[in-house]
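ugh finaly. both done.
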Amino acid sequence: MQVELRVQDTNLLEAFRGYIERKVRFALSRFGGQVGHVDVKVSNDSRAGAVKTCRIFAEIKPFGWVSIRENGTDLHAVIDRAIGRLGRAFSRRLARAQELRFGRETVRAA
């Protein structure tokens, strides 16, 4: 899993970068080799007041990408919510792909 962190219009310390990477790795570690590139973008929109934005793009091998966007005023809460949603979206996407791959079994009267 490759985690890339991009920061725009905000000051992040190295410890905060480590926090984000640890949270992403923990949320996606159960999916193993199906996780590809993960791109996390954190920004501070000064035009909208104190609104922080976290966008996450994660690759599901070989099924495509999942994208999550979360906004709020507290950066820690925004990141936590986005990463929580990422884990749930990843799980749903893999379940759908497995249903399509194996199909649903139907009960037939003999």
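ok and the 2nd:
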Amino acid sequence: MTTRTIALTEHLSKLGLTLDGDFLRQALQWLAQELIELEATQKIGAGKYERTASRTTQRNGYRERGLDTRVGELSLRIPKVRQGTFFPSLLEPRWRAEKALLAVVQEAYVEGVSTRKVDDLVQALGLSGIDKSAVSRICRELDEVVDAFRKRELMGAYPYLWLDALYLKVRQNHRIVNQALVIAVGVRETGERDILGFALGASEAHAFWKAFLRSLVARGLQGVQLVISDAHEGLKAAIAQVLTGATWQRCRVHFMRNLLARIPQADKAVVAALVRTVFAQPNQMAARQQLAEVARGMQARWPEAADLLRAAEDDVL
């Protein structure tokens, strides 16, 4: 028995293992690492320093990876390859669980959930919790995705372009301030609608809109024939300067809001229904005739709104 024990001890020492209280963790780590190396060899088509005709790529060092188990945390080395990617199937179940957790944290972050509540949520899932710095680190991936989306090249023509802005509360220099988020939505010649870009600024100033439109053109925006937006003077001037040759049309939704702001609350539904009949006409001539008729009908009770409707005829039609 003593001889067998000595022989086993010598064999384990050659494998880098020792018969102490940490034996199970060491043995499991050695076995996991061997399985990873074997799978990498199959993926590459050759072992370390081996030359074969079936080789598909080459090793390119290692990256460290931890794995929590019942016998403790294992420190594993994942081989990197020069072409393609390699991730051991041994770690796939945990990888999927981690991706699910990251998705939960990122979704909570996007929805504006506080760090403390994110920590409560993670603990409710049966985990030990997550600190503020970890949330920031996890959500840094979102910034990379958004940045790549904002800088992507625009391919093909977009005959129709919608421009709009909304104001959001943003934390800046430890204060909450209102900032304008400007958005561009384009329609392809085939009918698909795409978000082309967006930018955050202090206000909808002419210079800000002009810089935003120039950035779209620099990324490949072309073929714009009609631009739809509200009647913001700075935006209209920027469109005329940057998107030369494109026709501008006043956004019907924004116009209706401006018009109904001049109507008493009790009469808003009636006036809205009347004005919508203008846009329901089969052609422009009929629409202009209907607009004149609606404006005459509104003149007695809502003269200010009637004047606005007449003044906006060319813009909205």
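summary for the 2nd one i guess: The chain has four domains: 2-81, 94-150, 155-250, 251-317.
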